[in-house]
């Protein structure tokens, strides 16, 4: 499956946000807080068109969760058919991705690392191994690390050093090696710094 494999700091500088949450992106944004390219320093972030604002918000969400353009558009189309606010439904569906649950549980330092854990069959859903990062977890499902994977140095380091707080809509059990989806998240529980209404406007044209 295709995914973005280019320079992450360049994307973060273009969008003005630390998209993947890595230290390299933070350093790049501190050293060069302007868009990349020959004329990046002379660009003005405040003087942008409405279309560009909408596009940037869409790119922030797409890159943050690691989706291709086709995947993201298909997910938006599905969200637009649901009952409720389209933008909130879309973000909720993104949060329900298995790789995002692994990230939220604190087993992966970043979503790409959580995706790798999932691809390498370290994750179980309701006792069965699942290696599809886009698998949509539902209310009541339990996501856990496989027994043989609980001693991975990477997982232990992420849990001990990063010590990321697990969101309220997930219940932690088995000494932090399993989480259960207590309820589907609402917008206030999703800490993604995007304006989802602009994404809806972008795709509604």
Explain this structure to me?
With 205 residues, this protein is an alpha+beta fold. The protein is built from 9 helices and 5 strands; from the N terminus they run H-H-H-H-H-H-H-E-E-E-H-E-E-H. It has helices spanning 8-15, 23-31, 50-65, 69-80, 86-95, 98-104, 111-119, 153-162, 196-203; strands at 123-125, 128-129, 142-145, 170-173, 178-181. The radius of gyration is 18 Å and the shape is globular.
**Number of E-type strands:** 5
Number of helices: 9
Helix content: 40-55%
For the biggest β-sheet, the strand order reads: 2-1-3-5-4
Question: What is Rg?
Answer: 18 Å
CA(first)-CA(last) distance: 28 Å
Topology record:
Elements lengths: L7 H8 L7 H9 L18 H16 L3 H12 L5 H10 L2 H7 L6 H9 L3 E3 L2 E2 L12 E4 L7 H10 L7 E4 L4 E4 L14 H8 L2
Antiparallel strand pairs: 1-2, 1-3, 3-5, 4-5
